[in-house]
Amino acid sequence: MSRTFFRQVTAVSLKRSSGRALYAEELESRHLLSATGFTPTYIETPLAGSTGSGYTPAQIRAAYGFNNLSFGGTAADGSGQTIAIIDAYNDPNIASDLAAFDKAMGIAAPPSFKVVNQNGGSTLPGTDPSQGWEGEIALDVEWAHAIAPGANIVLVEANDASDTNLFAAVNYARQQAGVSVISMSWGSDDNLANRSLDQSLSTQYLVTPSGHQGITFVASSGDDGHPNFPAESPNVLAVGGTDLYLTSSGAITSETAWTPTTSGGQTWSGGGGVSQEFAGRKVPDVAYNAGIGMAVYDTFGPNHGWVSIGGTSAGAPQWAALVAIADQGRALSGLGTLNGASQTLAAIYAAPSADFHDITSGSTQFQAAGTGYDLATGRGTPLANLLIPYLASYGSSTGGGTSGGTTTAAPTAPGSFTASALSTTQISLSWASSTGETGYHLYENQNGTAVLVGTYAAGATSATITGLAAGSTHSFQLVAYNSSGTAATNWVQATTQSNVVTVTAPTNFTITATSTTTARLSWSTVAGASGYRVYEWINGQAVQVASLGAGTSTTTISGLKAGSLDYFYVNAYNATSSASTAWVSIIMPNTVALTAPSVVASATSSTTGTLSWTASAGASGYQIYYWNGYQSVLLGSVGASTTSVSLSGLSAGTTSYFAVVAYNSTTTAASKWASITTSAVNSARLADIAFAQSVTEVHRYSWLL
Question: In angstroms, what CA-CA distances link 418 with 406, 427, 457, 550, 686?
Fold first, then answer.
């Protein structure tokens, strides 16, 4: 099934305080009901015709040091490089919006700006029905150009937000002459169910084609606190988020991890963590301002003008621009452009800590910032005037970095590299330290291709690979690296333990409405399952709504809406495997209004009588009430098919009052009170009845069906 990808963008109204208003897009779950049934939902905040409520390029360039850099007498602006930007749908106003943005910000037009469809043609796709992707396009194009104004830009517009079409656009872009960096500000959730597909997409499309100059792939890590694909691919530079606070001149007053912010019932913060899909992969690699909005000119969307947009979407095109500037410097030195999988990521982790603003405070939704690398902000945000020269000379005779002049020897190969199974899902790796290494890259042989699955610091001697399939065989190679070269071990192999029961998907999954607001879910139990998780589609994502034990095959979900269309699936799991049903839908019944029964009452003797009434359509049954002189008393209930009862135990010579109430799961309707007057008997009998009344006043009546 094709999946829809959402762009990871947050539109914010900027305030220079922790109380800013923040809106963020929710990243779509991969458990999709269709490939095209969901649309982006981010909110743009208008700036009333002014650029003053969002950071300007001058502020950002000053904050991150882009304005303090040149290559000798040549402006460091990305000249000679081409940045490809991948987005979905068409923004018909992007050329004029870019021109208006440049004029307001005092930036020259790019040397070349071209817009093509996913196959490179001039017939562009339709616009986004939700008008969401056009804002993303404006953000990506305007800010990539703002940071690298001398670079060419090619905007590749996919037909829609499905993986098929977005990666068709990526595939076109990576094969175009001159393209040296590709920006992708969109993603989908990290999910074991997608591991095989995403690993295939990573090895097929997120690599430099044979014979092409090096390409760096850059992606935003997401706005929901979790890792996201394609950022989690080991071939991609993943950009996380920060809260950057500046003076009007661009001086940094503080920068922390992107503080979680709740809007629209969801919590938003930078994506980070350990990937489930790519063993050993941690994201983000680096970070950039996300929590404070940047000024964007977008006339297609509902706000028609200046808006303030943030999120990790803002970081990806600007890091792409940074790499383009570094590639410009490499070209001036006679070096080739950086290859993302084999050079850019290695260089990022090999670069001196002084080349980054290390974010040591604040937390995302799930990760805390700290000294050095962390899962909230990676290595940190760039000091571009230091990092770009390092990248520009990486791998040259000077060894990369800003000092130059010293040739560093390549590292020695790690020794005693071994692999062994730890469990049904884990393999342990160990090795003897290399000499002269800056760090280690770990590769796995996946379908004949060496795929980067982990990066480790200098001095590391072991690693554990998790999330593997039981009884599966894996081959690994460890590569020590520094700025002058690499040295690799031989390939080693290990097979995970196989004494495990693989669960299958539950069968006979059905949903039945038990009222207008509750539904009963049932399924057949699965051999070997430790339990079951029930998921519901809520606000564009699969949300777990129940967790049940191994022997359970039914549950009731409450709080649904009358007349609503709801989707559920059940996931069976044990310690090493899981399997899910398909999505099953239910349309909840609407509330059924009842009419009040019309009751006829009559005495049949001095102590008996009958009640009969008209049927009430939609009633589940009827309740019979008696008035005891100061309150109504429930005598009992009958089914929906019953419309009369016989009463006994009445008092002779008295008048009694009765009512019938129709009911169903959501409402009731009561008849008027009806009376029964019985005939009198002799005085001796009346005395006996009076005594009986005093003993069993409330409970003396009954009826015979």
Answer: 34, 10, 18, 38, 103
Residues 378 and 227: their CA atoms lie apart, in Å, by 12
Which three-class secondary structure state does DSSP give residue 359?
coil
Catalytic residue among 313, 342, 393, 578: 313
User: Which H or E run contains 392?
Assistant: helix 384-393
Distance in angstroms (rounded) separating the CA atoms of residues 161 and 90: 11
Residue 206's alpha-carbon distances to 160, 170, 541, in angstroms, are: 19, 8, 26
Higher pLDDT, residue 528 or 508: 508
Closest CA to 414 of 448, 442, 394: 442
Whether 222 and 312 have beta carbons less than 8 Å apart is answered as: yes
Amino acid (one-letter) located at 299: T
Q: Which residues pair with 446 in a beta bridge?
A: 449
- Angle at which helix 133-147 crosses helix 57-64, to 10 degrees, equals 60
Count how many Cα atoms sit within 13 Å of the Cα of residue 444 in the half-sphere of its side chain.
Answer: 22
The pLDDT score that the predictor gives to residue 64 is 95
CA–CA dist 271, 364 (Å, integer): 8
Tell which residue, 31, 24, 32, 29, has the closest CA to residue 8.
Answer: 24
SS3 (DSSP) at 33: coil
Q: Is 65 left (phi over 0), alpha (psi -120 to 50) or beta?
A: left
Give the containing element (helix H, strand E) for 569: strand 565-573
Catalytic residue chosen out of the listed positions 77, 97, 140, 232: 140
Task: Give the neighbor-by-neighbor strand order of the sheet with 427-432.
Answer: 415-421, 427-432, 462-465
Q: Is 355 exposed, middle or buried (0-12, 13-18, 19+ CB in 10 A)?
A: buried
Burial string for 540-560 (b: 16+ CB within 10 Å, else e) reads bbbeebbebebeebebebeeb
Task: In whole angstroms, give the CA distance from residue 282 to residue 348.
Answer: 14
Q: Which carries the bigger pLDDT value, residue 648 or residue 322?
A: 322
Query: In angstroms, rounded to a whole number, what is the distance separating the alpha carbons of residues 503 and 576?
Result: 9
What is the spatial distance between Cα 161 and Cα 133, in angstroms, rounded to a whole number?
A: 9
pLDDT in tens, 116-127: 999 999 999 999
> What pLDDT digit, counting tens, does each position of 277-288 carry?
898 899 999 999
Chain segment 430-443, per-residue pLDDT in tens: 999 888 888 888 88
Active-site position among 26, 91, 134, 136 = 136
Reduce the DSSP state of residue 96 to 3 states and report it.
Answer: helix
Alpha carbon separation from 539 to 225, 566, 626 (Å, rounded): 17, 11, 49
Cα(148)–Cα(154) distance, integer angstroms:
13
- Give yes or no: 140 in active site: yes
- Mapped onto helix, strand or coil, the DSSP state of residue 181 is strand
- Whole-number CA gyration radius for the chain: 35
Count the Cβ atoms, other than its own, within 10 Å of residue 688. 11
Between CA 11 and CA 504 the distance in angstroms is: 42
Least Cα distance to 280 among 429, 435, 472, 469 occurs for 429
Q: How many other β-carbons are positioned within 10 Å of the β-carbon of residue 602?
A: 12
Domains and CATH numbers, the chain: 6-393 (3.40.50.200), 415-495 (2.60.40.10), 510-587 (2.60.40.10), 599-704 (2.60.40.10)
Q: What is the mean pLDDT of the chain?
A: 84
Cis bond before residue 110 (omega within 30° of 0): no
Of 200, 237, 208, 197, nearest to 221 (Cα)?
A: 237
Directed axis angle between helix 195-205 and helix 163-174, to 10°? 20
What whole-number distance in Å separates Cα of residue 45 and Cα of residue 306? 8
Q: Please give the span between the terminal C-alpha atoms of the chain, in angstroms, as a whole number.
A: 58
pLDDT at 500: 65
